[in-house]
Amino acid sequence: MISSQRQHLILNRLRTRGAVRITALSKELAVSAMTIRRDISELSDKGLLKRVHGGAVTTNTLLSEPLFSVKSQMDIGLKDAIARKAVDYVQPGDVIAIGGGTTAYVFAQHLLESRQAAGITILTNSIPVAELVQALESKDVEVIVTGGVITRSNSLVGPIADKVVASLRVNTVFLGTHSVSLPRGFLMPNSLEAATDMALMDIADRTIILTDHTKWKCTSLSLFARFDQVDVVITDDGLEPSSQLRTRELVKDLVLAPTREEIESRSVGI
User: Where in the numbering of this chain does the HTH deoR-type domain appear (predicted)?
Assistant: First the structure.
């Protein structure tokens, strides 16, 4: 298959899925990952897609939310690293809130597998997170679901969700974000989801944002939090030094989670 045929197929996959991964395309087309990266780079130069870590997304995903099933396959290693670090911010018996999105979902997976989950209560507007808790054999974790209108990312938003949230109180809220804008703050493409995230922050003693380094290169529509409204930002160690410096000047605490590759390289060096 020649390059033009491969690139046509890549664009077709993007139109139907919203995002593609290099590893999956390499297997499907029986070519090297380097070849796929070259194709994606050429398509990006033409403005036909946007490169992200490990793959590509359609250009219109800057202002619209990809499906949860699509996002869950993107940047998996980075989300794991962030989630492992975020678990340290929960204590047994805490009352916490977990927002929508796949990074928050991966955090919930790691949390529920840890000792810190003992006796906790989770308020969430994420259907996948609620299903995780429901599937637990142990009933030591209580979940409260907000209700509301379902988004493409399987989050519950809108006036019903906001009203339920406003009647409660939590120790810490863990939120994902679609993009990070310096110096503005954290943004979502869905204005209703942004409003529900703001409602969750209003009832929390502490706000923690979970987001991988690629979000600093994205843009989006609706601001839901300024940097001075956030206590901790947890991202991976792939964040560029210049972005690290600017972010540290704006937020109370920036935490860089080591990726698995970094952990392994340190182990080899010992």
Answer: 3-58
Give the model's pLDDT for residue 75. 54
Nearest Cα neighbor of 169 from 202, 142, 134 is 202
Answer yes or no: are the C-beta atoms of 23 and 48 closer than 8 Å. no
CB atoms within 10 A of CB 253: 11
Question: How many C-beta atoms lie closer than 10 Å to residue 10's C-beta?
Answer: 23
Give the class (CATH, top level) of 70-257.
alpha beta
Q: Model's pTM, two decimal places?
A: 0.74
List the one residue out of 260, 258, 177 whose CA is nearest residue 215.
177
> Which stretches of the chain drop beneath a pLDDT of 70?
16-18, 59-75, 260-270
Q: What is the predicted pLDDT for the residue at 1?
A: 73
Residue 13 contacts residue 39 (beta carbons within 8 Å) = no
